[in-house]
Design brief:
It is built from twelve helices and two strands; from the N terminus they run E-E-H-H-H-H-H-H-H-H-H-H-H-H. It is mainly α. Strands 1-2 form a two-stranded antiparallel ribbon. Helix 2 crosses helix 7.
Length: about 475
């Protein structure tokens, strides 16, 4: 319909009309960002993982029969049971040695040397410090790093949900703006304006539906990650206490022996039976606790190493078993871990972006004409700003959920921290704790007890000599 001379309001415009309209208003939207490909390095097990896994067997599949699981448990528990049995034997020997140790033959009135006890105590303390340092440099930092990765992942997903809320609000604002166009048009062109707005409005509705589906999939994710983060914090605290408690007991035990050996004068009335009394109360329980802790850590290291031998395949297998092969969680895990399949989150964002680009293209063609023939409509700048703001939210969500951003969280938390740093720390911690509990501490107890027995004999000989001297005087 021709109005105002040569100015035409086009519903199905010719190429000339499209070019004229586009030249009057153009704000092209950029496409979603193209990110570099994700580099997924082939998984290579460390020496500790390979060694500890060799003490057990391959990790069973989720649907493995009960016999396979029983075999796996027995195989992984064999060497920890051997270590545990050895620890109980050593504990009994420690208890017996404090009661049955013999005095050194030929010991006279000369004071026995404290050097052997001091050297044994120093060795125990050095091993104790080495074990604590290994835990601090590996297990503690790895758990802290994993918590940081989970916190960042929770923050990124929460930001993606927030951007989704913005996209929904922007979609509603664009719909309201479009609905106001026919009302602002003169009666002569109102029907034609309604026909023009109708397909644009449907595109915005499709965009809003894609965003709504994205939000339905995305909203539970931050809470799930937060639950994992809270559980990890609890496990970290419990694990730290469980790992350091045996070392603290060894430190107390070493301190008791060193004090008894270093200051025997104040304990002269009970030097002969001091360690004998402490053995069932302090020494033997310490050896048992350290052995149990080392056996449990060895068992944990073997199981973890068996899982980490093929960490990607095992992770996906258990996610599939728990969540189901058709679940969104498994589909996302497969996409992020191995780069296979589709990502429903990114697919919804791409669909929403396609609808938004169509809205932008239509408004580029007809926006100025609508504003010219409907002078009471002042929503064109707001419409442009809303479309561009929605595009910005789409780009932010796409970048946050891209594999380039998500995969490093898995790589650092699972591949590096769990399957490398933690396993290495467990291996060295078992070695140091077994050395302290089964070697250094029993040697220190033996030498300390021997020193006190020799000291008691020396005091007895000196008292006897003094008594004989006094008797000879009389």
């Amino acid at each position: 319909k021709r109005l105002k001379g040569s100015r035409v309001f086009c519903l199905n415009p010719s190429r000339e009309c499209q070019q004229t309209s586009a030249s009057n208003m153009s704000f092209p939207l950029p496409s979603l960002p193209t990110l570099p490909p994700v580099v997924r390095e082939p998984w290579t097990a460390t020496w500790w993982v390979s060694f500890l896994q060799s003490l057990g067997t391959a990790f069973p599949a989720p649907d493995a029969p009960d016999d396979d699981w029983h075999h796996f448990v027995l195989k992984c528990s064999t060497w920890p049971f051997v270590l545990l049995a050895l620890g109980f034997i050593v504990a009994v020997c420690v208890l017996c040695s404090t009661c049955c140790v013999k005095q050194s033959r030929g010991a006279g009135t000369r004071a026995p040397s404290r050097c052997p006890s001091a050297c044994a105590g120093l060795m125990a303390l050095l091993l104790l410090a080495a074990g604590a340092m290994v835990y601090w440099q590996t297990g503690s930092k790895a758990l802290g790093t994993a918590q940081d990765e989970l916190a960042r992942a929770a923050k990124d997903t929460a930001t993606a949900v927030s951007e989704g809320n913005k996209m929904q609000d922007q979609g509603q604002a664009i719909l309201s703006n479009l609905d106001s166009i026919p009302k602002a048009c003169p009666e002569a062109v109102r029907k034609q304006a309604e026909q023009l707005v109708k397909p644009i409005r449907q595109q915005v509705v499709d965009y809003s539906q894609s965003v709504a589906q994205f939000q339905t999939l995305m909203k539970p994710v931050p809470g799930q990650i937060k639950d994992v983060e809270d559980t990890g914090a609890t496990v970290s605290s419990v694990a730290g206490a469980a790992l350091l408690a045996p070392l603290a007991l060894v430190l107390v035990c070493c301190a008791v022996i060193v004090l008894v050996v270093a200051a025997p004068q104040c304990m002269r009335p009970c030097t002969g039976c001091c360690l004998g009394a402490l053995a069932p109360l302090v020494m033997m329980p310490t050896v048992v606790v350290v052995t149990v802790a080392a056996a449990a850590q060895l068992d944990l290291g073997i199981v973890t190493s068996s899982f980490c031998k093929n960490v990607d395949s095992n992770s996906l297998a258990y996610i599939q078993s728990i969540e189901g092969s058709n679940s969104t969680t498994y589909e996302l895990s497969l996409y992020y871990i191995q780069g296979e399949g589709k990502n429903p989150l990114l697919e919804q964002l791409r669909t929403a972006n396609g609808e938004l680009v169509q809205v932008e293209d239509t408004m580029n063609k007809f926006g100025n004409q609508v504003a010219a023939f409907c002078p009471e409509w002042k929503g064109l700048p707001e419409l442009k700003a809303g479309i561009q703001s929605a595009q910005g939210s789409l780009e932010t969500g796409f970048s946050l959920l891209s594999p380039q951003n998500i995969y490093p969280y898995y790589d650092r938390a699972v591949r590096q921290d769990l399957c490398q740093t933690v396993v290495i720390g467990l291996g060295w911690l078992v070695l140091f704790q077994a050395s302290v509990g089964l070697v250094a501490l029993p040697i220190l107890i033996r030498l300390g007890t021997k020193y006190l027995k020799d000291l008691e004999r020396m005091q007895s000989l000196r008292d006897q000599s003094a008594f004989l001297g006094q008797r000879g005087t009389f």
